[in-house]
Amino acid sequence: MSEVGAFVVGVPKAGTTWLTNVLSQHPGVVLSNPKEPNVVASHRGTFGRTGDEPDWSRYDDCFSGDGLRIDASVHAFACPLAPERIARRMPSAPMVLCLREPVSRAVSHWKMIRDTEEDFRNGADWSDFEVAWSDSRLCDDSFYGAAMQRWLEHFPLESFLIIDSQRMRSEPNAVLSEVEEFLGLDSNQYDLDPAKHANRASDRRPLTGVGRLVRAGFSLVPGFVKGPIVSRLQARDINIYAAPVMSRKAASYSAGQEHYAVCGEGLCEDLRLFESLTGFATEHWIDRIETSRR
């Protein structure tokens, strides 16, 4: 198995799609295909969980070409098994850790799942945020301190570059320069258009009955047939499910007092733990959470 050179380990809804898509423009980078192979961790996306050992042969097939191989399976950060598995095979791999104020992260993650109806497809009903938050498959990704404690049992702190996702919007070039230096990459010029590279809420329109039928039919098409089709559509930034007959406009909402009241207290304690472990300043997030939950 060829060694993976670096990981983008977290967390969902914290800018990892934008970062990895932009980094994929670098001639010295080989991004995994798919972006999230979900091979190493027991957390396979939001809902998938397995205790099986990774299929390392399939993992190797997720990379093609020469360069620094990057795995961006963001759910690995919250996975209790991923740190030891990666340390066993790739003990020197650097980790880029993208974080976001954890309540707004959880609400954005919850909204994404509701928009795509992934909860219902996995036998859950997350229509109420408080119910969803009680499900570890949502809340675990927001407990940065608890996760970091596990990672530091296997990797030194120097293995991590921690990025506040807000900086990707306010100073993207500075963030990319830091990532390049951290990963040992030469400087490169990038197309930073967020409309092309971000995982936007506007792209996640709930499907109509027609859209569900098309998705179900497309899922039956062999990968070797639909792969080139999907690649061409993505290259042209075409989303066939955005058509009105396929989907409807999603409801618009953001984190409010009711969300901060549900999970704010526990997350403030966890953020203090994260700061004590890493030295990464979290007081601005704690202030926002404590103010918003009142």
Total number of β-strand segments?
7
Largest sheet: 5 strands, parallel
Approximately how much beta-strand content do the residues carry?
Answer: 5-15%
Radius of gyration: 19 Å
**Strand adjacency order, main sheet:** 2-5-1-6-7
> Can you tell me the overall shape?
globular
Structural class: alpha/beta
Which residues form runs of ≥5 with pLDDT under 50?
none
Question: Whole-Å distance between the termini?
Answer: 52 Å
Helix content: 40-55%
Mean pLDDT score, rounded?
Answer: 89
Q: Count the helices. How many?
A: 15
Order of helices and strands, N to C? Answer: EHEEEHEHEHHHHHEHHHHHHH
Structure description:
Helix 4 packs across helix 14, helix 8 packs parallel to helix 14 and helix 14 (257-278) packs antiparallel against helix 15 (283-292). With 294 residues, the protein is of the alpha/beta class. A five-stranded parallel beta sheet has the order 2-5-1-6-7. It has helices spanning 16-23, 56-60, 82-89, 102-116, 118-121, 129-133, 136-139, 144-151, 166-170, 172-183, 194-197, 209-219, 223-235, 257-278, 283-292, and strands spanning 6-10, 29-31, 43-44, 48-49, 68-71, 95-99, 160-164.
